[in-house]
Amino acid sequence: METHMKHILMAGLAGLAITACGGAEETIASAPETETVAEEVIETAAAPTQSPMEVALAGDWRSDDNKARDAHRHPAETLAFFEVDADETVIEIWPGGGWYTEVIAPYLASGGGTYIAAGNGRADRDAAFAERFSDTTKFGTVNQTTINAESGALADAGTVDTVLSFRNVHNWMGGSYEAKVFEDVFASLKPGGVFGLVEHRLPSSADQDPKARTGYVHQDYVIQLAEAAGFEFAASSEINANPKDTADHPFGVWTLPPTSFAGNENRPAPEGFDAEAYKAIGESDRFTLKFVKPGA
User: What is the value of pTM for the model shown?
Assistant: First the structure.
């Protein structure tokens, strides 16, 4: 009897062990499925969301060379300093080949804003620019206007939120119509509108060439021009400063990258000219100024 009870007890324990093992196997079998779901949730939660500005900067329409210049031109920081919002109407003066256009136009398109390129009036360049930025799926609708010594209104009076200029004042000085440009910009802006401006900086201790043939301009002179046109000086930033730039190079600002001019038959380089030394300086020292049209 005692032996029989032991056999029953052992059989029962064996049954319990088998049941327990069966349960463990089911739990183990289902564990990977649970972990996979958890991993998917974690990956989804951790997936970064790019801002419209980040999307514009990363766009495949920008070449690697253009993206490399972000380290010198600081587009995201500069546009943030100028308080450019994606739903605004923005004019960029003399955009050239469109380095900044590649960033500003898609950024504005993302928020329903309006981008307007103000060319210098050369029909061939305006046509090439229009073709370059004709893809509305990437850049939205790129509008065009003109500003130069003889141009009319930059835009309908009081209709623009922000006007931007990157390294252009020396060109206007070369044509002796810098005051007109500031007046035209002022007229185009809404009350409270911003004129954001970046230019190669001439040290205050250096003499200013009225034609700015070196490409460098006194910061104080630009502030004077703006205030004479009716603007209030709002703020300055050192976002685009480069303390290594002494602004006294053989071929002016064009001695430095990205132009890196090293002379030619008509303008030979001086004796001992070291192109690599100028490349090591990097791009020019630039002031970054924000002006506001009063009356908001």
Answer: 0.84
